[in-house]
């Protein structure tokens, strides 16, 4: 029996998108890779080589486009002229042919733009273990090259063409005077913090510094794409790219501005979560170290019992607390305090009296807060997780991998 899907959330368009960044053009076209006929080839092109940093999946079966983009970033010294993306096919576990196809995608774009092939990155997302239909991919790339534009609609066509099981488009951005920070991403399943999450593209026209940029991007990922959880399953294709067209001087707080956009994108991934109805932000404080705090947050976020309680709006503190108790390295767990939607439900080894009906009603919000306060040090962590309902099982039981 088919389970009714929860209502698809509707978010207002972001104030800006990728093509709002000075020097960027984009396109998104229908090449016929997807049986649905939805857009499936996307292209992002800069007027001049951009400064770029990429973080990629740690999965041992990393897809051909991931391996090639790593090599290209290294060979080009971090210069990026274009990014070509296909959806509907992951080009993962496709052997030597997959490697050749990923390289051909880059070479086709590079030839049209007159740039070194190493300055073109490639991303793929979709079904694993199926060869790319290269005739369709080639035609799609040519069409995208011809249709690329700097208008706002083109940026949103790029976003539409990278989506797979996403229930809604995911974009975020902010304008700071003449400068822009904007990003888009796709992802709803196969989400587990371990580098990045699915495909995410964050662009700015700030002139980002070369020294320390990769470390900054890793810090941004740590609080955004490495702090979102759906189903403990890292993809073979996870890619997070930060790109700069270098048009405006970067202010002292540039990293925080990029981080804010990345965190919003990560929240949208958790909110989608293939049938999710809410995002729960787990905040752990007072741990003996950040690593222990992270372990606590991860244990709680990954628990099926916790996430089904969140789906059912059940203030079942026993599930939260008992999962904290499964973390090794806690020195004084008996001093744990647990708060749900700001309401204290547990302290020092026993429940705190609270109004269960009121707590359940408060959990019906789209944003839920779960605070876990230890008394062992200054360690802290934040993790966003989706709830787990009937729809997730249905979507993934019927999805061919």
Summarize, please.
This protein has 401 residues and is of the alpha+beta class. It is built from eleven helices and 15 strands.
List the helices and strands and how they pair.
Layout: E1 24-29, E2 41-56, H1 64-76, E3 79-89, H2 95-113, E4 120-127, H3 134-147, H4 152-162, E5 170-176, E6 179-186, E7 199-207, H5 213-222, E8 228-229, E9 239-249, H6 254-272, E10 279-287, H7 290-302, H8 304-311, H9 317-324, E11 337-340, E12 343-347, E13 350-351, H10 356-362, E14 367-373, E15 379-386, H11 390-397
Parallel strand pairs: 3-4, 7-9, 8-15, 10-14
Antiparallel strand pairs: 1-2, 2-3, 2-9, 5-6, 6-7, 10-15, 11-12, 11-14, 12-13
Helix pairs in contact: 2-3, 5-6
Defining traits:
28% strand; 15 strands; eight-stranded mixed beta sheet; seven-stranded mixed beta sheet; alpha+beta; 401 residues
Could you characterize what this model shows?
This protein has about 400 residues and is an alpha+beta fold. It has helices spanning about 65-75, 95-115, 135-145, 150-160, 215-220, 255-270, 290-300, 305-310, 315-325, 355-360, 390-395, and strands at about 25-30, 40-55, 80-90, 120-125, 170-175, 180-185, 200-205, 230, 240-250, 280-285, 335-340, 345, 350, 365-375, 380-385. Strands 1, 2, 3, 4, 5, 6, 7 and 9 form an eight-stranded mixed β-sheet that branches. A seven-stranded mixed β-sheet has the order 8-15-10-14-11-12-13. Helix 5 runs parallel beside helix 6 (about 255-270). The chain is globular. The relative contact order is 0.14.
